[in-house]
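Need a sequence for this fold. Nothing fancy.
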């Protein structure tokens, strides 16, 4: 009985932790921290447990589903995680097409998927949308994060990188 009560308390605490609503900034920070299978699975569980979902939540959930492929050794599961994650992320983008954070998420996922899989069809579109809207973005940490990614990537031309560096 004693062990059952301890288990029940721990389970309730874990459930409360996973079911807390995450803000946009919390999702962004936790996603950036997904550098291990454990961190990725923890964020996946947290996002799975959330009740009130909006486009940004759906986008991060899709990105984390796709990111799970990185930590799986089964090629079929890797493919399915990427496919499912990108479908969820693209659906969120369809509902909020001007949100550069969603475009950024899809861009980082698609630029890290091998091109022979055919899942990187939106790279140019997302890059152009971001470049067209980043100057007017009010969220400075997001603006910095996205700019740094684009400056380090090989998807931008030197002219585009100069424009980004001046923002």
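Here you go.
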């Amino acid at each position: 009985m004693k062990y059952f009560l301890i288990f029940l308390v721990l389970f309730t605490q874990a459930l409360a932790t996973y079911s807390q609503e995450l803000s946009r900034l919390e999702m962004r920070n936790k996603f950036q921290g997904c550098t291990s299978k454990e961190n990725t699975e923890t964020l996946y569980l947290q996002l799975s447990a959330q009740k009130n979902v909006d486009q940004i939540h759906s986008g991060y959930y899709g990105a984390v589903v796709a990111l799970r492929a990185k930590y799986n050794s089964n090629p079929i599961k890797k493919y399915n995680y990427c496919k499912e994650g990108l479908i969820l992320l693209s659906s969120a983008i369809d509902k909020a097409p001007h949100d550069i954070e969603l475009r950024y998420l899809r861009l980082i996922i698609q630029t890290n998927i091998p091109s022979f899989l055919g899942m990187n069809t939106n790279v140019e579109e997302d890059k152009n949308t971001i470049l067209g809207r980043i100057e007017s973005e009010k969220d400075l940490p997001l603006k910095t994060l996205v700019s740094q990614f684009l400056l380090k990537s090989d998807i931008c031309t030197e002219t585009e990188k100069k424009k980004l560096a001046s923002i």
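For context: The chain has nine helices and no strands.
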